[in-house]
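Dear H.,

Thanks for agreeing to be a second pair of eyes. The structure we're designing against is below in token form, covering all 115 positions.
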């Protein structure tokens, strides 16, 4: 569980910064190898995650959002909103699979919205 927490902090945090005062801040936490019960908000009593809990309680949590049991396809689907093979990512990256550069990503959508 510590590994999942460290993974979350080091790898899975993406932060969208609002460009204008009327736009909401967007914080996306995508953790590799972390389960629903790994956070104290969801009942974990071995690892305390007060900062993550306060962010979740003040915003939106997607409690059953998952796509694949391995990291690369999960990231590809999250970034594009499309089924991972359509973007060229099938499994654990070995350096041969790459996300199709022509795919529109969540970053493109945020940019178009003025972020």
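And this is the sequence the design step returned. I haven't edited it by hand at all.
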């Amino acid at each position: 569980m510590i590994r999942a927490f460290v993974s979350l902090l080091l790898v899975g945090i993406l932060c969208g910064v609002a460009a204008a005062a009327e736009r909401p801040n967007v914080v996306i936490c995508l953790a590799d190898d972390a389960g629903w019960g790994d956070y104290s908000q969801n009942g974990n009593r071995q690892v305390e995650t007060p900062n993550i809990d306060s962010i979740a309680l003040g915003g939106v949590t997607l409690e059953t959002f998952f796509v694949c049991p391995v990291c690369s396809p999960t990231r590809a689907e999250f970034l594009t909103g499309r089924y991972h093979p359509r973007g060229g990512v099938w499994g654990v990256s070995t350096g041969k699979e790459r996300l199709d550069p022509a795919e529109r990503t969540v970053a493109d959508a945020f940019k178009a919205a003025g972020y």
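Two observations from my side: The longest strand covers residues 13-16. The CA atoms of residues 77 and 84 lie 5 Å apart.

Warmly,
E.
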